[in-house]
């Protein structure tokens, strides 16, 4: 699961990225996370882990994680090579979803690239650049498809149809995600890495004085997101970076004094996870309790493959119970005795909150 942070310069992207990654996961759990400086790993907080830990003793509790890529360099003209141009575009094509940071804080000392704080104007500037980039991709793919379609190649004909379908909204300044596409069409769009086809979560970077995002600047972002069926999470970048530096009890105290239950970044990570259509199952034992993120709809063998490829190939069955079973019966043994431990096979579709032991013929 990977999300990319986009936004105009000086809206608080780096501040939020740094706070996210400072507060984030232990690098030791994710050996590849620290290779690139603009990639961070963020925990997805899940209160159920604590519940499970109340019944199963271990020293290691590992939440699900989200990879976050800081994609700098989008300015007006980025799609035609200004700013970092194509470099950022190739990064952004690979992510699963986009966190669009919008400046909703007013501070005379911090310059705004367009001279004024204007969330909708900012969103439109970014959207235009992304749509232009997609138009280029769609344009050249369409040329290619039409050329091969002339020989009567059915696949190319179908491909050209889908590309034409994508071209229309882009020309009207609308994102490809506004189209109603079927599964095959979506697959093609994904293979092209169209940026405006990706889901977007708006991150409204708010003033310290408007921590809950009740002010008018956030409201316009909410109205905008509602039109696209999207979500807005208000985050005060400045405050979050202070919170991330504190950690532990000091952080709790500061949160309490502000009347907050958790850092806004925790909410952000969870919302991003939801946006991507993921849910979690758990493995729990003496060695570790761990949440594993999988797309909704995955089968038990696919879920096993999330742990290790070999587990998917040699999958035999899964022993499954739920967090509720554990709360009610307290031990796995008691769950079994109560007849609540299910044996599931290859066709089983995983449910959110399943606690699983996979059996494989390794
Ligand atoms: P980027 O160019 O989008 O990465 O923006 P930065 O993260 O570098 O932030 C630009 C400036 O805005 C920095 O001086 C930050 O300290 C400041 N800034 C970021 N978030 C906030 C915020 O929530 N409130 C205020 N007042 N300033 C912020």
Automatic annotation (TrEMBL):
The keyword Metal-binding applies. GO terms for cellular component: cytoplasm. ATP binds at residues 10-15. Residues 1-255 form the OBG-type G domain. GO terms for molecular function: ATP binding; ATP hydrolysis activity; GTP binding; metal ion binding; ribosomal large subunit binding. It comes from the Bacteria. PROSITE patterns: G_OBG. Keywords: ATP-binding, Magnesium, Metal-binding, Nucleotide-binding. ATPase that binds to both the 70S ribosome and the 50S ribosomal subunit in a nucleotide-independent manner. Belongs to the TRAFAC class OBG-HflX-like GTPase superfamily. OBG GTPase family. YchF/OLA1 subfamily. This is Ribosome-binding ATPase YchF. It comes from Humisphaera borealis.
């Amino acid at each position: 699961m990977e999300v990319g942070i986009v936004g105009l310069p000086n809206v608080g992207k780096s501040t939020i990225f740094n706070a996210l990654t400072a507060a984030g996961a232990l690098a030791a759990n994710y050996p590849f996370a620290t290779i690139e400086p603009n990639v961070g790993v963020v925990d997805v907080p899940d209160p159920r882990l604590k519940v499970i830990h109340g019944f199963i003793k271990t020293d290691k509790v590992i939440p699900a994680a989200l990879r976050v890529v800081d994609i700098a360099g989008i300015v007006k003209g980025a799609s035609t090579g200004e700013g970092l141009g194509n470099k950022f575009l190739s990064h952004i094509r690979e992510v699963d979803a986009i966190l669009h940071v919008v400046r909703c804080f007013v501070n005379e000392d911090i310059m705004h690239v367009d001279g004024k704080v204007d969330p909708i104007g900012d969103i439109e500037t970014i959207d235009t650049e992304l749509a232009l980039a997609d138009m280029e991709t769609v344009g050249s793919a369409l040329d290619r498809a039409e050329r091969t379609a002339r020989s009567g190649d059915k696949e190319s004909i179908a491909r050209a149809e889908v590309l034409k379908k994508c071209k229309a909204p882009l020309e009207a300044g609308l994102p490809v995600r506004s189209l109603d596409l079927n599964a095959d069409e979506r697959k093609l769009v994904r293979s092209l890495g169209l940026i405006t086809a990706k889901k977007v979560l708006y991150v409204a970077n708010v003033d310290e004085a408007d921590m809950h995002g009740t002010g008018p600047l956030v409201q316009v972002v909410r109205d905008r997101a509602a039109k696209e069926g999207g979500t807005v999470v208000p985050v005060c970048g400045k405050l979050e970076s202070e919170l991330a530096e504190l950690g532990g009890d000091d952080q709790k105290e500061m949160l309490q004094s502000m009347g907050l239950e958790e850092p806004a970044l925790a909410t952000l990570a969870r919302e991003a996870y939801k946006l991507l259509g993921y849910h979690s199952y758990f493995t729990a034992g003496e060695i570790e309790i761990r949440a594993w993120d999988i797309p909704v709809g995955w089968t038990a063998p696919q879920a096993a493959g999330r742990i290790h490829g070999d587990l998917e190939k040699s999958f035999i069955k899964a022993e499954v119970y739920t967090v509720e079973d554990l709360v009610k019966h307290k031990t796995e043994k008691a769950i079994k005795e109560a007849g609540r431990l299910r044996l599931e096979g290859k066709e089983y579709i995983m449910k959110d909150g399943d606690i699983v032991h996979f059996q494989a013929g390794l």
